[in-house]
Amino acid sequence: MQRTRLWIAGALGLASTAALVAGPLKKPALTVRNAHCVGWCVDNTGPRLVALGDSMAQGNSRVDWKIHGNTAWYSYLVCGDGAPASDGGNLGINGATTTQILARIDEALAAKPDVLVVNGGTNDLARSVPLHQIVGNLRTILERAHEVDTVVIATVPSARTVDADDLNNEIRALAADRGLPVAEFAPLLGKPGATFDGVHPTAGTAAEMAAEVAAAMGVTIR
Question: pTM to 2 decimals?
Answer without folding.
Answer: 0.83
